[in-house]
Automatic annotation (TrEMBL):
One of its GO terms (molecular function) is lyase activity. The keyword S-adenosyl-L-methionine does not apply. It comes from Spirodela intermedia. GO terms for biological process: menaquinone biosynthetic process. Keywords: Lyase, Thiamine pyrophosphate. This is Mandelate racemase/muconate lactonizing enzyme C-terminal domain-containing protein. It holds the Pfam family Abhydrolase_1. SMART domains: MR_MLE. Residues 880-965 form the Mandelate racemase/muconate lactonizing enzyme C-terminal domain.
Length: 1393
């Protein structure tokens, strides 16, 4: 221990440092590492007070520091350890000293160590500065000029305020006047201390002038003159700092100095003036200040380099500065790109935040190319950051958990993203722009590169960048996609024309030769938040982005974002159209349009440009102010008059005055039509989109709320446990799936579909699924079709057998939307149920938490009720009195809602009599009968009537005529395709509810989408069962509970009164005499009331510990193995060995599957297993493919393969395999072989033929010869270049454009690469070419066996006709279609898709 005064003085002389880690506001900053320099007198006083210091805890080096007071200064973090001191920084410093020290320290770091009154104190106290004083400021300035000329580095001149500043004027004049002279003689490069990468050839200085604060100007205060831009044109740059305050981030001072030095030393160099106002500059007393103003300086304090380092791309490689930037990028553990550099994104594989002006936001992706698979475009970061949870997660992942973070970007549009970055101050922020200006309003840029984006990307090319962020990127991708789907849903579900809709679909109206010019204010913000690109087929005319051959086109986007003003935008857009020589779509607001109506005069002068379309969003004022906080605190009249500047000016009349075509649109359809007209026209046009400020503000609020909600839910789904919040998304695999058929007894006949009976008992059959994840978690699902489903039990089992095979080993992630489009109807619902319950068990969460991301401890919109109201179901059989008695018993039990099945009697008046007795619901008649019934019961207080008419087009008509409320039921069941588009016709307020059966509409995801649509339009979403067991009923109870929570949250967000509680159609539990589940669903009256409810807690418990009642299981299926074997043939001219695989019972009908070129018998395995319950299925590897081999006996002369030869080989193979006639199923090349066999062996062996994308051949001899030459050339390329090169060329063709969009495209190509013998494959390509095959068109006319033609749904009519060539042949083939086989293949088609 050291306690003597001498020792303390020695300690001071050696520049020992003491850490300031005490309980002060300074330590509130995360990861702050700061030290305090203690002068000798201070430490002497400390020692006298008994404070001891351990010398071995200190080290002796210091790179830099800045002074806070006469006794305390902050310095770099030059030693390790956590030590404490009684010094309180917040009490020992004033803000003037902080800013002055920052200024001086940054000059020192930039190499400006000669500095010629807080500024004077800080400069003189710094150990690395050399200070010279003089009573004549003019002499001091000239001295600085001489120093700069001699040392080749600028000097810093510091003066007080007032006339002292004016005395510096001759020096800048001298510097500028000697420009040419100095250029001739000074050629040495600037010292590396500058880190600016350039030399300068004449002296330059930086003039720091102290000033009085602005409140003293023009008041007669001493030494208070106007010093702002004091030197005018005689300095290269002038900047006036604000007076020091802790309300401004202190890093602003540093970026100001860094920018000033770069400007001063950059060609053409010149003096720079920085004006520094101070309040009470001569008082150096301690004053309180908030240490939070130092936020973002942690990294700066820990090193000795400037805060923002400037580079010029021209000297990037010459001065070796590229190495520093390379090091930062290569070492980055987390990074994002906020820049339109596709090449850089491809090289780094960092997530790309797509600003609208970058061109990548409206990207057009042409096909699923592997080059683009690893690129992640984050379009909706702005909306993601609406969520507090998302901001915390992003901050932890990008800034806190990984200290080596890096942002590469340029100026961005989103204020929310900018504020988020400013708050966290990335360790490395590389800003790239071609101009030399700062453009860093957040003061966070650490590396400023003057360069175009393309030049910067090129400078980093051909360097290795380790891939460290693939899992993190996957997480971001799912989060971004979830928000994108929600925004798309909200915009699509709002059927009125909204401003976000215009921005959302703007890319669809832009052709290949188009460009977009976006106005400021709401126009640019809406497109930045809501615009989307699209995926489409390749086009040879499209310019590939950055000319790099990548399958992505960036739309050229421009805007006047300099000062973000709204004037001159129309004229600028016309100039942009002339300059870029493209069709320009200009999107502006009405106030912007009115500010530049003279631009219409320029528009009329169409000289050397293409037609333009001006899209004016007319909400009759400045709508942006309605989205700002002032809208909540300012009265409406003031807003309209002074902020909205509301107007009634006619855009149409302005256009007429300038002879410009005007189109006025008020609906989505009108907008689409108007854009289409303009794009096809050669005239300039103005499209006026009608809107209102109020509706626009409301819809923006809904979108913001929805984005925040879905982000919170997604984060909860992805990170269910607290300690996993930081982990990247985890994938799990399905180990296996099994199913069992069950049969349970019913207490009552089903009210839907046929009634099953054996003797006097009623029963229901279905399948229970058991799905096991790779960690052993098991989930169960139920598939039990009845009459209202499109499938029967046989159809369902075929699909389940198919999935038992294909689902094994499949990866699933923790977001439900991955199931989109994978399954159909009740099968999909059952598999979804099994997957979700397995995930819930894996994560230890409930079913709803897994699906929808609600956390009990954080969800404010959770309902307080513990159950879901259940609607009772009554079949209207018997007299009105009998039915009324049944209903009265149900009411006594606690049912508040009764659903009565009507429309079963001949006379609707009989049903009306029943309703009058029990005041319940009604059913389905003809329109006239429904109206008659409605007229009789309209005073019975019915909540709504389900499907009162037979045809859906009469539903709205019925509502209008009877004024009765209607619910959709079967109409919802029958909706296919685009749900939102089909539902648009039912927004009528007379439709108050939709009844949703998850097993009919295609699972929980589709059901949730329909329910959300209903709630958005203030309709009830009623979940209904289809007589399933307690397994499904429990899932529906939890699902209904989620929807009730969601409805309450939507009502609150929209400012509406909460809707009454919905009774869900789960009363079918009363039909179950037996149950599949060992523990049955619990439905009882609420403990605190008399309402019949299904307990949410009991339903969750049933699912968590679900067990099957084994007495109900009749049989099980867990898959079956294929039976492979080899069949050989030794012929006179060749010998062959064919790989054969089969599955199924030997006595069943035989179906043989033949693959296409590059395929193998394995391609058919999923479908073969699906059919194996009723069919013996056989597949082969055709000669030249897979594991089949053929060897030619050259001495006998024959050495070529042909369709006829392969057909004869297969005929012999099948003769050995079975004595029965077979059905041939062939795809493409296999279809042609199958058709040949069908025509040759029609009476001996072939029972029927299925041709998938096959052709009888080419009739035209010239076309056939051309095709043969093409295939022979392809075969030679395959033979000489190998399979891998051939596949890249083969699948790049237009024929495979839709296949390239398939999510499993890469897997398909990978499987094709397993073909063993490229030479044999080349022989097959040439020998089996359709150009070499004899056409079979004439044989088709006499063929009597059934043939089924199958074409892909994306095949155009032209493609079909080019194959079949004759509609007469198609009609002829249709006469022989085997109807049962057609039905079966249609089922398989839906399964395969």
């Amino acid at each position: 221990m050291v306690s003597s005064v001498t020792a303390v003085s020695d300690l001071c002389n050696k520049s020992w440092y003491l850490s300031v880690h005490e309980q002060s506001s300074l330590i509130e900053m995360k990861d702050t590492n700061m030290v305090v320099h203690i002068n000798g007198k201070f430490m002497e006083n400390m020692a006298a007070e008994g404070h001891n210091f351990q010398m071995e805890q200190f080290q002796t080096r210091c790179h830099a520091y800045f002074r806070l007071s006469a006794s305390v200064a902050l310095a770099t973090d030059v030693f390790e350890g956590h030590r404490r001191s009684s010094v309180s920084v917040s009490k020992c410093a004033n803000i003037n000293a902080v800013w002055a020290s920052l200024l001086v320290e940054e000059f020192v770091r930039l190499g400006l160590t000669d500095q010629v009154v807080p500024l004077a104190i800080s400069a003189s106290a710094h150990q690395l500065t050399t200070c010279i004083s003089c009573y004549d400021e003019r002499s001091l300035a000239y001295h600085a000029v001489g120093y700069a000329r001699g040392s080749l580095r600028p000097a810093v001149v510091i003066t007080s305020s007032g006339t002292a500043v004016s005395n510096l004027l001759p020096a800048p004049l001298f510097l500028l006047g000697s420009f040419c002279f100095c250029h001739m003689f000074l050629e040495e490069p600037l010292s590396e201390l500058f880190n600016v990468g350039i030399g300068y050839s004449f002296p330059t200085n930086l003039l720091l002038t102290a000033d009085r604060p602005p409140e003293l100007h023009d008041t007669g205060a001493n030494q208070a003159i106007n010093q702002v831009n004091h030197f005018g044109e005689f300095v290269k740059h002038s900047f006036s700092l604000p007076p020091p305050t802790d309300d401004i981030p202190a890093r602003m001072v540093l970026t100001t100095i860094d920018s000033a030095v770069y400007i001063a030393t950059h060609p053409a160099q010149g003096p720079v003036h920085i004006n520094c106002p101070f309040r009470e500059p001569l008082e150096n007393y301690p004053r309180e200040w908030t240490v939070k103003c130092l936020k973002g300086l942690d990294n700066w304090m820990s090193n000795h380099i400037p805060f923002s380092k400037y580079y010029n791309i021209q000297n990037f490689s010459v001065c070796g500065q590229i190495n520093e930037v390379l090091r930062i990028v290569q070492d980055a553990e987390r990074g994002i790109l906020i820049i339109g550099a596709l090449l850089l994104a491809k090289q780094l594989l960092w997530p790309v935040v797509t600003d609208i002006l970058s061109g990548l936001r409206l990207r057009k992706l042409h096909g699923a190319f592997s080059d683009m698979d690893n690129l992640l475009f984050v379009d909706h970061l702005d909306h993601v950051l609406v969520s507090d949870s998302a901001r915390i997660w992003w901050s932890q992942m990008l800034f806190y958990r990984y200290s080596k973070n890096c942002i590469i970007g340029s100026r961005i549009t989103s204020k929310r993203i900018s504020q988020w970055l400013a708050f966290h101050s990335p360790r490395s922020y590389i800003l790239v722009d071609k101009h030399p200006y700062r453009h860093d309003h957040s003061h966070i840029v650490t590396h400023r590169i003057q360069s175009t984006v393309a030049e910067f990307a090129e400078s980093l090319r051909n360097n290795y960048f380790p891939q460290k962020m693939s899992k993190w990127s996957r997480f971001l991708e799912m989060l971004n996609n979830t928000v994108a789907r929600e925004i798309s849903f909200q915009i699509s579900a709002e059927y009125s024309l909204t401003e976000p809709h215009v921005a959302h679909g703007i890319a669809e109206s832009l052709r290949d030769n188009a460009a977009l010019f976006i106005g400021n204010s709401m126009a640019v913000r809406d497109t930045d938040m809501f615009a989307r690109g699209w995926v489409g087929p390749s086009s040879s005319t499209l310019h590939q982005f950055l000319c790099d051959g990548l399958p992505l086109q960036g739309i050229r986007v421009a805007g006047n974002r300099g000062a973000s003003g709204i004037d001159g935008l129309l004229s600028a857009a016309v100039g942009f159209a002339v300059g870029c020589n493209k069709r320009v779509l200009c999107m502006v607001g009405d106030v912007s349009f009115l500010h530049d109506t003279n631009g219409l005069a320029i528009l009329n002068q169409r000289i050397q440009r293409r037609p333009m379309t001006i899209l004016v969003i007319n909400n009759h004022g400045g709508a942006i102010f309605s989205l700002l906080p002032l809208e909540e605190t300012t009265d409406l009249d003031t807003l309209h008059k002074y902020f909205y500047t509301s107007h009634d000016i006619s855009v149409k009349k302005l256009c007429e005055a300038h002879s410009v075509r005007h189109l006025h649109v008020q609906t989505k359809m009108e907008l689409q039509l108007a854009l289409s007209i303009c794009q096809q026209s050669q005239r300039d046009s103005v499209i006026e989109v009608e809107s209102t400020i109020k509706s626009n503000s409301t819809f923006h609020s809904i979108l913001k709320w929805s984005a925040g909600q879905i982000t919170n839910q997604a984060l909860h789904v992805l990170s269910p446990v607290q300690d996993r919040v930081l982990d990247p998304v985890s994938l799990c695999k399905i180990e296996k799936m099994e199913y069992s058929m069950y049969r349970i007894q019913l207490a009552l006949p089903l009210t839907s579909g046929p009634k099953n009976s054996e003797g006097n008992s009623l029963y229901k059959e279905g399948y229970i699924l058991s799905l096991t994840l790779d960690d052993g978690s098991v989930g169960h699902g139920e598939v039990a079709p009845i009459g209202i489903h499109k499938e029967n039990l046989e159809d369902v089992e075929e699909q389940l057998r198919f999935f038992v095979h294909v689902i094994e080993g499949s990866e699933i992630n923790n977001l439900l939307p991955i199931l989109r489009g994978s399954f159909s109807s009740c099968v999909r619902c059952g598999i979804e149920m099994a997957v979700l319950l397995a995930l819930a068990k894996q994560r230890g969460s409930s079913f709803c938490d897994t699906v929808f991301g609600y956390a009990d401890e954080t969800d404010d919109v959770r309902m307080k009720r513990s159950g879901i109201q259940v609607c009772a179901l009554v079949d209207c059989n018997g007299t009105p009195e009998e039915v009324s008695h049944v209903v009265s018993q149900m009411v006594a039990e606690g049912f508040t809602t009764i659903k009565l099945k009507v429309a079963r009697r001949k006379d609707p008046l009989e049903d009306a009599a029943v309703v009058k007795e029990i005041r319940n619901r009604i059913g389905n008649w003809s329109y006239e009968e429904a109206v008659l019934f409605g007229s009789r019961v309209k005073h019975c207080s019915l909540q709504y009537i389900e499907e009162p008419v037979q045809f859906e087009e009469d539903i709205i008509k019925f509502c209008k005529e009877t004024n009765l409320s209607v619910a959709l039921d079967e109409t919802i069941d029958n909706i296919k395709g685009d749900l939102l588009r089909r539902l648009e016709k039912f927004v009528h307020p007379g439709i108050v509810a939709v009844v949703i059966k998850p097993s009919v509409v295609g699972g929980f995801e589709n059901a949730a989408l329909i329910a959300q649509w209903a709630q958005q339009h203030e309709k009830m979403a009623v979940i209904s069962s289809a007589f399933e067991s307690s397994l499904s009923l429990a899932s529906y109870v939890l699902f209904s509970y989620h929807l009730e929570c969601q409805a309450a949250a939507i009502s609150t967000a929209r400012g509406n009164e909460p809707r009454s509680v919905t009774a869900h159609g789960l009363g079918t539990y009363r039909w179950l005499k037996e149950d599949l589940a060992a523990e049955t669903i619990s439905v009882s009256t609420h403990p605190n009331g008399n309402i019949m409810e299904a307990s949410v807690e009991d339903a969750g418990r049933l699912l968590q510990r679900f067990k099957t009642d084994k007495r109900t299981i009749h049989r099980s299926y867990c898959g079956e193995q294929m039976k492979p074997y080899r069949w050989t043939l030794d012929d006179v001219n060749f010998s062959c060995s064919i790989k054969v695989q089969e599955v199924g019972i030997a006595d069943n009908q035989v179906t043989v599957f033949l693959h296409g070129f590059l395929g193998a018998g394995d391609d058919w395995i999923p479908i073969m297993k699906a059919l194996s319950a009723s069919t013996r299925c056989i597949s082969v590897d055709l000669p030249g493919h897979g594991e089949s081999e053929i060897a030619w006996k050259v001495e006998n002369g024959a050495s070529s393969i042909s369709v006829e030869l392969v057909g004869d080989i297969l005929h012999k193979l099948l003769s050995d395999a079975t004595k029965k006639k077979v059905v041939l199923v062939g795809y493409s090349m296999g279809a042609r072989i199958a058709l040949y066999m069908a025509t040759k062996y029609r009476d001996k062996q072939i029972e029927g033929t299925v041709l998938i994308s096959g052709s009888p051949g080419i009739r035209d001899d010239a076309v056939r010869r051309t095709r043969l030459a093409q295939d022979d050339a392809r075969a030679r390329y395959l033979s000489s270049h190998g399979l891998e090169c051939f596949l890249k060329t083969w699948y790049a063709g237009d024929l495979w454009s839709s296949l390239r969009d398939h999510p499993h495209f890469r897997k398909i190509v990978s499987n094709r690469q397993r073909q063993g013998d490229a030479q044999a494959l080349a022989q097959a390509l040439s020998g089996l070419s359709i150009g070499r095959q004899r056409p079979l068109w004439e044989e088709l006319r006499t063929l009597q066996k059934p043939i089924l033609l199958v074409f892909g749904e994306k095949d155009t009519n032209e493609k079909v006709h080019s194959e079949t060539e004759d509609d007469l042949i198609i009609n002829l083939l249709a006469q022989f279609i085997d109807r049962p086989l057609l039905a079966k293949l249609q089922c398989l088609k839906s399964t395969s898709s």
